[in-house]
Amino acid sequence: MREESQEESQEVSQAALFHGPNSPWEIRTAQRRTTENSEILVRVVLCSICGSDLHTICGRRHAQTPAILGHEIVGQIVQFGPLAPRTDLAGNHLQIEDRIVWTIVANCGKCYFCQHDLPQKCIHGYKYGHQQVQNDSAWHGGFASHCTLMAGTHIVKLPEQIDERSAAPLSCATATIAAAIRTANLVGHETVLILGAGMLGLTACAFANKQYPWNVVCIERDSHRRQLAKQFGATSTAEPNSMTLDPNDSIIPYGFDVVLECSGTNDGALEALRLARTGGRIILVGAVFPSQPAPIVLETIVRKQLSIHGVHNYQSQDLLAAVEFMTKHHRDFPFAQLIEHCYGLEDIQNAINSAQDPRNIRVAIRP
Questions:
Q1: For strand 215-219 and strand 191-195, is the pairing parallel, antiparallel, or unpaired?
Q2: How are strands ordered across the β-sheet holding 191-195?
């Protein structure tokens, strides 16, 4: 039996379709498609514009078009398909009008990568906000009034105390950093270096701070963002290429135990290699679009016995950890203030322009 919100009387949806770099946005209106089988229809409450959205919009990475971008979404359940799940990852009961977030990839659970703890690399996976729109398909991106969740999507119900501005990045930036912290196996009293103070870097500062490290240092070029890093838990900040290692330093004599590279730049990766201690762990998170090769000296990695891990997206457990972290610490750090500007769907080009201003950590669409 299909269940639907009584308040959701409108039978149409709107979406902003991306047709490629330098092409105008198309605002398309269509009849709302009825959910089938295990699908869940949600109303998009808020969708923040991720840096990867900007990479696609600006042509730094390829996307098949037309597409409905946007994957950092807070949704409100409108309709359940007859076979749709009624519990979230934590076992909470789901019902109409619940606010939810969900995994960025709907995965099959059976393929090689799903069976090897890489559900985000599922051979049959569907990635929200990244796929081409077909005329007869449901909409699966956040730059729209509604989004249809597919089978294999893992959902987490949002507690009432989490503001939607704090919640929007949960399904991308926050969960990705939860995965990075898990991968780093960070323990108390270690020294942590974070490169970059965008959304990923600031979130990493907050997560690292709550692991009770000896020191959290954030390297960032922009002075405003360096100040933000301190608000998010960094004990000190520095400009790129300004730190030197000194064996007589009582705090960081030989380098950092853990380095989280969140800037996505070659310079950031090279600085990570330089400032990680011998035997240290480097987690590469920020590089999500093609770039020029980095001049890495392999001997450095070998002689320093470094462990280097790449983290791209996350497992469902990381989304749950992200929601739990935000529930517990949303008052400790000003996450909600990172989204200062919200735009309507019809004003999407101004939203994109605003999101490209480095003073704005995140900008959001409120359809």
A1: parallel
A2: 236-238, 215-219, 191-195, 256-261, 276-284, 307-310
Q: In angstroms, what CA-CA distances link 189 with 151, 208, 232, 256, 333?
A: 42, 11, 18, 11, 21
**What is the reported pTM?**
0.94
* Alpha-carbon distances, residue 164 vs 40, 76, 125, 257, 263 (angstroms): 20, 11, 27, 34, 25
Query: Structural domains in the chain?
Result: 3-172+315-365 (3.90.180.10), 178-310 (3.40.50.720)
Q: 219-228: per-residue pLDDT in tens?
A: 999 999 999 9
The number of helix segments (H) and strand segments (E) in the chain equals 10, 18
Are residues 143 and 345 in contact, defined by beta-carbon separation less than 8 angstroms? yes
DSSP 267-316: HHHHHHHHHEEEEEEEEE-S--S--PPP---HHHHHHHT-EEEE--S--H
The reply to whether omega before 66 is within 30° of 0 (cis) is yes
Confidence of residue 280 (pLDDT cuts 50, 70, 90): very high
